[in-house]
Amino acid sequence: MAGSMMGLGQAAAEPLSAPSFGGPLRPNPDPMSMDAGVFGRLHITGQLTGIGNAQTNGIPGVDPRTTDPLVDIGNAQIQVQTTGAPLTFFVQGGVYSLPSLGSAYTRATDVTDQLYGPVPVAYGKLELSPNFSVQAGLLPTLIGAESTFTFQNMNIARGLLWNQEPAISRGVQVNYSNGPVNASVSVNDGFYSGDYNWVSGLVSYAATPSSTITLVAAGNFAESGKTGAATPLAQNNSSIFNVIYTYVDGPLTLQPYLQYTTVRSNRDIGIDRSAETFGGALLARYAINENFSIAGRAEYIALSGGDCGVAADCAPTNLLYGPKSRAWSLTVTPTYQRGIFFARTELSYTRIDRVTEGYGFGSNFDKRDQVRGMFEAGVLF
């Protein structure tokens, strides 16, 4: 399915900015495309991948079978987008799995139904000038160093820090670029709440050809009592700050980042105690050759506050594994890709150093660690 569609006109291969790929997986460099007249060019890309998952001390999910070894859909998605015109659009649709460390594995069909639906990302974008653009719709978050879908990231499963971040929000975003500086500001609904009470901002500076520093700040400016599978109450009423450093030198990529989140108490919406998390992670990958690479991730996160003490009429605020909990993880992901075909395996270890009774791993929520093995393979057309 690679290459231009026959009978629709030839076009030179061009890189597409969406969806983003953080490596080591590479998108099809010559996707299907056609002339769209005044709308520029229309491109069709997609991912068809499968996932295998096996783990110790599984957390019961929506489907009790998810604690057992399983095979599932990783991605059955397609993207349609236009480029080369002042007004463009991007639409991503299909079924997807969103595995993350330290949480229950949920099957792709359930994830798609409960979170963002069969069209998770869709927006229009207007280029106002070579430096300014505005986009609106279902937008990928500006927050964090890891993206939403498996094929976008160094590792198959996202990490513990990702669990504190919104993945997709509905809103409006303004973008600015000028040489080494890129900036974006968005007014959105945070954790997919439907209340447009969040502001997110990002500024990145390419200090050298090999190094970039990115600052991110986001949070709600008005409280929301909405809650749901995609809208955890505490996180949706939080503020999040990132410092992300990216270093690329030939086959080596290093990406350390820090994250701080804080939640204010508000009994009117059910948050009885304030809480905060502080975490750090190092993402790394090394390309052994054109086809083989290896990626790794190490991270640590700690929760402070949120406990009720001796108060009898208080509900604790839990952002991790109970008030004052701490956790860390290690992940390694070897990857093979040839053309549009790829396969990769993953081994991870997650440890809770301090856990509140009833918030741990296992069927009785009393275990402190989890080993997870994963496999993902498919095509990126």
Describe this structure in words.
With 381 residues, this protein is an all-beta fold. It has a single domain (32-380), classed as Porin, CATH 2.40.160. 3% of the residues lie in helices and 50% in strands. It is built from two helices and 17 strands. It has helices at residues 108-114, 233-236, and strands at 32-35, 41-55, 70-83, 87-96, 121-127, 132-140, 168-178, 181-188, 198-208, 211-220, 238-249, 252-263, 275-287, 292-305, 326-338, 341-354, 369-380. A 16-stranded antiparallel β-barrel has the order 2-3-4-5-6-7-8-9-10-11-12-13-14-15-16-17. The longest helix has 7 residues, at 108-114. The chain is globular, with a radius of gyration of 21 Å.
What is the CATH superfamily label? Porin
Total number of distinct structural domains: 1
What global shape is seen?
globular
Overall CATH class: Mainly Beta
Largest sheet: 16 strands, antiparallel, barrel
| Percent helix | under 10%
Mind sketching the topology for me?
Blueprint: E1 32-35, E2 41-55, E3 70-83, E4 87-96, H1 108-114, E5 121-127, E6 132-140, E7 168-178, E8 181-188, E9 198-208, E10 211-220, H2 233-236, E11 238-249, E12 252-263, E13 275-287, E14 292-305, E15 326-338, E16 341-354, E17 369-380
Antiparallel strand pairs: 1-2, 2-3, 2-17, 3-4, 4-5, 5-6, 6-7, 7-8, 8-9, 9-10, 10-11, 11-12, 12-13, 13-14, 14-15, 15-16, 16-17
In short:
This protein is mainly beta and 381 residues long.
